[in-house]
Amino acid sequence: MVVSMPSIHTALEHLPSPYETALSQYDRAVQRLDLDDNVKEYMRWPRREFTVNFPVRRDDGRIEMFTGYRVHHSTILGPSKGGIRFSTNVTLDEVRALAMWMTWKCALVNLPFGGAKGGVIVDPKSLSVREKENLTRRYASELIPLISPYADIPAPDMGTGPQEMAWIMDTYSMTVGYSVPAIVTGKPINIGGSQGRTEATGRGVIIVMLEALKRMGRSNPNNTALVIQGFGNVGSHAAAYAYELGFKVVGVSDVDGGIYDANGLNIPKVRDYVAANRTLNGYPGVDHITNSELLTLPCDVLIPAAMEGQLTEDNAPHIHASLIVEGANGPTDTEADDILNDRGILVIPDILANAGGVTVSYFEWVQGLQEFFWDTDEVFRQLERVLIKAYDATASMTEKQGTDMRTAAQMLAIKRVGDALLTRGFYP
Ligand code: NAD
Asked: Is residue 373 one of the residues assigned to a domain?
């Protein structure tokens, strides 16, 4: 029996279109740049967009149809690079936006990559392990014409992790007839993954936060309260590293809601609880709050690390933090950006704040191609070097232009891609 395609989720309809947000950020940055108009227009467009509808056999024997996407926004600086998202909220519009942000992120941290993103409309929690493996492998095989270690290199994003990357690597390797570890990053260490990749994004968020706090003259972790939205790969590792450094993490949340303790949460215990229960629901001895309450909690630093479109004109006026570090991609819409800037709240933009993930993905790709592997200390040392250099460049541009950090970061990135495009020329 064949069942019809799952209807595209409408829960995000009230949120701003991520691609509109990405384009309005682009337009804001590009108007300040002295760049050829043809180059400005070219870079607004995704290079390729791929949509696929494919079958997966469920455990009860039914065939269910799923829809997936892969967008290559740019391949000017090198092969395109970007994660794969499994979520019911995936849309082509969202994947386009995320691919564009990957282009700017890779350029900002000076990686030899363009930007891409992929996604499948699915609730990964609704699948058994076997169903998830079949879905991942079938989607990967549909991507074969697009991906290669020299063309497009996928990585994890919301709803995917090392296991999904292992299945993609195996599917690709079986198709070409030999093992190709460099086809994906974020894979398990025993098949060529990098030390430190799992923690890299969350750790990078905290490295960038430390740099911002240092420049604000606030270096005492004990006096600094953090709130983190999202307790997945990015949020939980950011929380763990901040806790290790002595910061007070007073609130965290997942899709089911948040928890709050003004005295600071015991993050290792929270992580153990989530590992055992797969939710923060029911965590004992703390206040339970909603995700919208979490965003306006009293704190010094707010780290949105769940998904896009979370900070809007409705909640931006009520945010208490003086520093926002964007762990997620696109968590702040354009109206919220304006309100936060007017209120003097420093926003470290996603393309800088969460660039730790793609930076260590780049290290993993290099290690895979060279078949020469680094230890954790080397990975973290190089990660810090890359992020601090990008922070410095962005801070200088912010000062020089008298603008916000997002616009400055995008200007740096867009200029690098635009200059490379002009050097290469327009084909044919
Ligand atoms: P994940 O799937 O591991 O975790 C997502 C977390 O957000 C989970 O705790 C989930 O319960 C929560 N969440 C989902 N919907 C929510 C909602 N509506 N409200 C509140 N919480 C919600 O995903 P991740 O890899 O941690 O990615 C999180 C964000 O960081 C995404 O925007 C992603 O694009 C971005 N990002 C991830 C990486 C990476 O290396 N994983 C790198 C750069 C950026």
From this structure: no
